[in-house]
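ok so I'm stuck.
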Amino acid sequence: MKSEVLALIPARGGSKGIPRKNLINLLGKPLIAWSIEQAISSRYIDRVIVSTDDKEIKEVALSYGGEVPFLRPKEFSTDSSTDLECFDHCLNFLEEDENYSPEIIVHLRPTGPARSVKIIDDAIKLFKQKKNFNSLRSVSIAYQSPFKMWFIRDGSLKHVVSGVREEASSPRQGLEKVYWQNGYVDIVRRETVTKKKSMTGNNILPYIIEGEVRDIDYQEDIAIVEEDLKNILSCKISTKNKDKHPV
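replied:
not stuck anymore, here's the structure
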């Protein structure tokens, strides 16, 4: 039996860095539209749901083909609300209201729209094959090593990584590689959210993204992400042309 794959796009109405961030214009479209269209274009995603507390975002999401079967309750839509609260609420609603229980949920954050649908699909395909993993997280090589990072506690430096001694004085090239989660695409099994009450579980599959992944957090990020999107779109056009006119 085919496993159902749901894309869930969280999009609150509030934002401190950029007011009404999910609706800002990005190359002629609202920011939220990019993630919706990417999910719709996926070979593997069956449904695309936007979880929002905002009526205007709901209308925009619907106009671009997303589903908005509910407005997210205010208690799960504050600055301190977690991804787990958003996902747990959505999955419980779908099960109770529609008797719908997708096996796999793809997390697409609207603030990181510079994505390739091919990479999203590759991550989903890999995760579907690796059934012993609870979740998948996209990661990139960290520019700075936590082996060389410190806390200041009671006026004294303490290693961020416990048990570290001389690594802080070692050449960077000799240290173990470290990765940071970049939010490009994350995937989780339904039971990890609803039963383990976790967005990752204990067994997390890494998916390495090459190059820099940028989010829109502040006004100055908009132009940079627009350039990233232009590069991705130009690659798509180039690929299509090659398909039509093979060299």
